Structure prediction request, 589 residues.
Amino acid sequence: MSAKTGTSADPVLLALTQNRLDHISQQMGHVMVRTARSPIFSQAHDFTCFIAGPDGRVTAQADGIPIHSGGGGFAARAILRDFAGDIADGDVFLLNDPWAAGGNHLPDWVIARPVFVGGRLVSLVCNRAHQSDIGGGAAGTYNPEATEVWQEGVRLPVLKLVEAGKVRRDLWKLLLLNTRTPDLLEGDLGAMLGSTRIGAEQVAGLVEELGVEQALGYFDGILSHAAGRMGAALAELPDGIYEGEERSDNDCFELRDIWVRAKVTIRDGRSLVDFTGTDPQIPGFKNSTLANTHSAVYTAFASFFDPAIPRNEGTFSVIEIVAPEGSLVNAREGAATTMDTVFVAHEIIHAVWKALNRAAPERAAAGWAKNIFGVTSGREAGAEGRPYVFYHGLAAAGAGAVEGRDGFNQIGHLCTLGGLTISNAETYERLYPVHFRRQELRCDGGGAGRWRGGTGAHYDVEIRTPALYSFRGEGLRYETGFGIKGGTYGAAGEMQVREGDAAPEPAPKFGLKRLRAGRLNASSPGGGGWGDPKTRPLGAVWRDWRDGLVSTEAAREQYGVVFVGDPDDPGSTFSRSLDAAETARLRTA
Prediction:
């Protein structure tokens, strides 16, 4: 049903319009990948393209990562609020600030291009992208020593970057002066502008084909349809109040438990997520802004239910969120927040998952491990060496298992749901003064279960120039990927650094460390297992044993499976390796 026209929408045309908008957002992403300067975009895809209607509600977010687009409507509506009556064809807007402009954290810059058809505003096409460097107290956008937002980088309210088709050169120069990597930023902003231009042209073409009134009616119908689908999914759950909580073991400066607590109420096809009882905001940079908290909650719901449910702002209109001001999930203006899209987003998603696991045990998901990798920044060799910012994404952790599938052995942050890709070591060696000595999947890292958690990886890299290391090792030294239904936690992460030929020393969980040519090695954390490990199929345990993902000892102690011989023996087979009698005895016991 279209509220704008008051008539029933043609379901075929409604579906085609939704798919067309999704395709346009994906085309914007292709343009960005092919034209962006920074590897964080061209390799890792740390950006998201989305499309909002003329009222600022997001109708399509098919490209990118959910922590970016879930709160995209906050940014779109900030533009409409701040420039009401002053938005013209040919304008392009830029923003990042969480409090003044609906941003989630400072590194994620939004380029938004209004679309006009027949002189009427019909859409905002947007690209939210994590910039390599935005100034602040540490290179690489993440300052683990920050205690306030002004130490984290440049704050941008809603600005007109392009006015009537002309780039504002004064503003452009201001942006380039506030980054350590102006050559990258200039190319990346150009790519963002280009991607939104392509998106705007295609959205305008769609609206012209349908006619303005009918197109806006279908945009509204898309949101209504999505709300109905999510409402129906919620209505299938038993009405009730379900609670979940997740902790971090530090506040970025000292070890102490801090908690996110979520009370999820399901009633009549709607949900209330109440974070009352969550701990107060902390000094460090893991405080969440309101837009980011909404994104994290939406990510938790979107990943829990049928993937065929559309993903737009209509989907989440049946979910209400209560986030007390001054808490970890709604920090007051001025708080340090740079890490919020990863942590505390991870804790928010886990807390909501744990509540939903109680509401729908048949859909229960095991926990993803918290990543440990950080950023290294420096200058290439030589007096005129260019600055570089190198993300250690190849040290990514493992994901949790679900019924019917093992956890992904290595994957980007939970908040990305796999949308953040792991770059190629060979490409990084060409782009940066680094050499990879090791990068392989970890043995015994994944939580045991009928479905095994993701293993994590062993990672070892040399940095061949003096550099500043920015650590954000949330998953270090404690287990973070929880098991479910009898599955166990994945292994904790470990990381060491060494300077030159010196002995290795444990890396800090958070903080900055300056080293001459150095080396970093890590064992990234593993995801949680699902179900009783003693019910895992014998063939699956044997495959993991042969692949080096499960040791002989773990196969016996965790899975009750006894293997003999050498797993690396090329002549080894399942029947020759398995001690069937001892395995039967252990599994029966």
